[in-house]
Amino acid sequence: MKDANANEVEASGADPSPSPKVKLVDYVARELLYQGYVASRLTGMTPSNMRRAIGSATRSKYLIALPFAFLLLLIMAEARFLPLNGYLTYPIGVLIWTFMPVFISVMQISYGASAGPQIRDTLLTLPLSDGDVKTVASGALISSLKIPLLVSVAILLIAGLVLGPWLMLAGILAAVLSTALALIAVSAIVRAYRRLGTNSRLSTLIRIITVIPILLFSLVLGYVQSSKVQISFFQATYVPVLNLDGVAQGHGLALIISLVYTVPVAIVGYVAFRRTSVALLSPLTFFASRRGSFRAMVRPPITALVLSDFRQMLRSPRLVGFIIVPFIYVIITIYSSVVSAQSGAAESYPALFISSVLPVAAISSFLAYVLYLTELRGLSYFMTLPLGRFTNVKSKLAVTILFYGVSAALLGVTFTAVTGNADLFIPIVAFMLTVVACVLYTALYFHYTVKSMALGVLGFVNTVVYTIVNLIVFGIPAASFVVALFLYGNFVYPTLILAGSSLIEIAILLLLLVRAS
Amino acid sequence: MTASGEAIRVDDLVVRYGQKTAVNHLSFSVKKGEIYGLLGPNGAGKTSTIKALIGLTERDSGTVEVLGRDIDSDAVWIKGKIGVVPENPVLFDSLTPNEFLELVASLRKLPDMKKTRSLVTAFEFDEFMDTPIASLSMGNKQKVTVIAALMHGPEVLILDEPFNGLDVRSVRIFKDLLVRHTSGGGAVLFSTHIMDVAERICNEVGIIDQGAKVAEGTMEQLKASIHGSTLEEVFLKATNMEKEIDEVLKALE
Q1: Number of helices followed by number of strands (H, E) in chain A
Q2: Of A206-215, A399-408, B58-67, B202-211, which range is least confident?
């Protein structure tokens, strides 16, 4: 039918000129941006101000792109001024920090575009050939990624002016290669999902497999950073990926060879993605694993909420990313600690704590925000249920404490095993109070935000204000602890200061929450 | 305080979105044992009224009482006594109906799932219980919200376009359940565009236009006062649409 349409169009000479196609790509990209941003934040009300929602979505994309770009800048500067093992860490770092946003963004669009099928159906009803539909779909999907890519490339170009053209070239090659690899990975996963994900269990399995490419890249980076890999001149010239080290060092031959494989990989990436692009906008069809099985049971409200949060976390790409990345970080840290200990280079306790446990606590302090955001999707129904005023807060506390507890405990056990001393567990437990304060603040924030959310979406300024205040709630106890740690050199007084300041925050926030509800 | 026998009482309700007044000084009441139909053209303020009634939208003024309790001071108690079918079945997409109904039953602290099981069977929904809600058709999503609204045997049902997307069999079952619910002393407030359904099952009807009530009464009272032989005629006359439709049709000739 589609081909017949295409033939008719060709015969009538009504093949659309490139200009309408470019416009169509732009419209579809805007729609994807809008849906990706708004879909998970719907309150049941239709957002009335689409322009404002798209503006918020665009600014959010920049906000998300900036930390990645900053990371690229740091890696580039480190390669220039503190080259640990040649320049290898630099291209590998660019590879992973470009791969992650591209891969996660596309996966998020494919799962998150609630009206993706409508976009696809609309495209298929237009007088476009099958190839045109694919071009428009892939163009729109790639266009929706342009902000993180442009920000990263701009940083690489500008920094290249200061740090040297070879570093810039190596970085851009790594970014192009990484983007293509991300598109190939997405295409492979989506194809597997379409073919095998015909029931809820297989679908869940494939969603879990989604994290494997990220995990592999992360472990490679961890390995290169921790084990001080040295590569030979031959490897730095002829071996794909490794020879980006050669490019960074200014070897012309390495540049030519890297172009020889980067260009075909980029083409393969685009072609594979173009083929999959329409599937990315197609409905996800599941069939029940078991038919006619009514297994629901009544549980205590908080248990039911916690269970529901965990179920949604494991099935939402947004949440899976949020959880998997810290866990990967924990795995890399554990791996690095064991390797460092084997080489006799054990770090001091304060450094170990600040570089390892503090980031996990900081990430945990934002988990409740993501949980509440996910809840907004079904909020209009959720608000009709008879929930006690602290029931939901308690469930968010339980999930966050579990998340932080498991991650931090894994680190604590490893450090204890490596150093033979369990002191690090004292501040790990105390930091739980700081995380609790952040959950209470998040609950308070959502209490007021939901009330005023006529638009149905969280505005950009609103999100920035939340982030800043949450960083302050976390930062006051954390900064006091770090300063005290350097002053006293042991964990006793710093932990008392940490616990004391966190408890004061908890008391204030509890008071505000009681008054608000 | 509601008069004895009143399940819902709305007094002088005003809801504004910025400059736009969605509900304009609206008052009505729904008695126990009654099905009250809230009718109106698109954008008349039906959904805003229902949202304000269950606390989803903030009121600018006016009071809402359900079973004699104020929605502001006794919201949790009221939510325990009502069942709601919202206009759009926007639920937790990644959960299955099994998991979603389990969550709702747990939050409502039901003693068991017997009634839920019966409803699932009645709506022939067993085979979809393990399918993620995101993958369900609109009608099947609607069935999930209908089952969730009825599972705890609420005293008051508040339904916004409850028959949207449902198949003929399900509509019939649901309508009969509503009639049985009111004959047992329960109350139903529902909004709909389907005049036939409203005419057949409503004891009383309120017609609103541009946020304000333009007519109210039993079928007989409305037909007599507005001079219409069917509810559709009454509705079109009450909302001044009859002449407008004639003009539009003439223009299309």
Answers
A1: 23, 0
A2: A206-215
Instruction: Give the least confident one: A152-156, A395-399, B1-5.
Output: B1-5
Closest CA to A431 of A474, A388, A483: A474
Please report the pLDDT score of residue B135 as a whole number: 77
What is the structure's pLDDT at A511? 95
A515 at interface of B, judged by CB pairs closer than 8 A: no
Alpha carbon distance A509, B70 (integer Å): 28
Q: Is the CB of B86 less than 8 angstroms away from the CB of A387?
A: no
Beta bridge partners of B64: B10
Q: Furthest-apart CA pair in chain B: how many Å?
A: 62
Structure confidence by residue, pLDDT tens digits, B218-248: 988 888 888 888 888 888 888 888 788 888 8
Task: Using an 8 Å CB-CB cutoff, list chain B residues near A42.
Answer: 90
Instruction: List the one residue out of B60, B39, B7 whose CA is nearest residue B222.
Output: B39
- The whole-angstrom separation of Cα A103 and Cα A97 is 10
Q: Where is pLDDT greater, at A220 or A345?
A: A220
- Taking the C-alpha atoms of residue A353 and residue A427, their distance in angstroms, rounded to an integer, is 9
Please indicate if any CB of chain A lies within 8 Å of the CB of B107. yes
Q: Which of B79, B94, B148 has its CB closest to that of A386?
A: B79
B contacts of A298 (beta carbons < 8 Å): 102, 105-106, 109-113
pLDDT higher than threshold 50 for residue A455: no
Tell whether A284 is within 8 A of chain B (Cβ).
yes
Sign, CA dihedral A133-A138-A144-A146, equals: negative
Whether B91 sits inside 8 A of A389 (CB atoms) is no
Nearest residue, CB atoms, B104 vs list A44, A380, A385? A385
**Does this complex have an ipTM over 0.95?**
no
Is A441:A469 a contact under the CB 8 Å cutoff?
yes
What backbone torsions phi and psi does residue A294 show, to the nearest 5 degrees? -100, 105
Query: Which of B93, B127, B145 to substitute to test the interface with A, most A CBs within 10 Å?
Result: B93
Give Cα separations from B158 to A5, A208, A216, B192, B201 (angstroms).
Answer: 47, 40, 52, 12, 15
- The count of other CB atoms within 10 Å of the CB of residue A19 is 8
The pLDDT, as a whole number, for residue A264 is 94
| Residue of B112, B120, B135 with shortest CB distance to A294 | B120
Using CA of residue A219, residue A222, residue A228, residue A232, what is the dihedral sign?
A: positive
